[in-house]
Amino acid sequence: MARAFADITFTPSVKAAQARYGSRAANEGFERAANRAAVLTAREADFIAARDGFYQATVSETGWPYVQFRGGPPGFLKVLDDRTIGYADFRGNVQYISTGNIEADGRVSLILMDYANRRRLKIWARARIVHEDEDPGLLARLEIPTYRARVERAVVMTVEALDWNCPQHITPRFTEAEFAARMAAGEGDAGG
Q: From 74, 86, 129, 189, which residue has the greatest number of CB atoms within 10 Å?
């Protein structure tokens, strides 16, 4: 695990909470990790490519967090290189809260879930908005021609930290396709 995770998340108040609740010593190892970089390996790239959605948190100028689910076909969130991810931003409810927040403060946090296999990847990144007239090649790279949704812009994120999170309290859930595959495989009870 890269030390970047602890550098971003273990603020003085978090360390105080860890001390109060008895987990400070166990968490100090994250801060001593030799690896500072937060790079996406093949494991993360494969996981990201299989997701059909994720939760994205942004922060407003008033300091309030905003969390929104972003969905699309599997693989719409793309790994561009070992430190960069991005997606074509499809037209939605036209409130532009995430877009405005990113323009004001590019810090974002993503949670990518694989409910069926009880896996979760958290990513902290610096996001920027890219319009088609600024980089048409990038938008073409992020667009999914078979998905019928209007692309308004791209969101490109430089990864600052990542963490694979504990599966302990992830309730298994299945998409229709996952459920059908389990039934076809004769598993009967999709819950395991």
A: 86
Residue in the structure block whose two tokens are 């030390």: 3
- Are 88 and 139 spatial neighbours (Cβ–Cβ below 8 Å)? yes
Q: Summarize the confidence of residues 85-108 as an average pLDDT.
A: 94
In a 10 Å sphere around its CB, with 0-12 CB exposed, 13-18 middle and 19+ buried, how is residue 89 labelled? buried
Q: How many residues make up the chain in this entry? A: 192
Q: 150-181 pLDDT, tens per residue?
A: 889 999 999 999 999 888 889 989 988 888 98
Query: Is residue 87 classed exposed, middle or buried when 0-12, 13-18 and 19+ CB atoms within 10 A define those classes?
Result: buried
Helix axes 24-32, 12-20, angle to 10 degrees: 140
CA nearest neighbour of 89 among 136, 158, 148, 143: 143
- Give the amino acid at 62: T
- CB of 136 within 8 A of CB of 80? no
Residue 127, classed as helix, strand or coil, is: strand
How confident is the model over 139-154, as a mean pLDDT?
91
pLDDT at 8 over 90: no
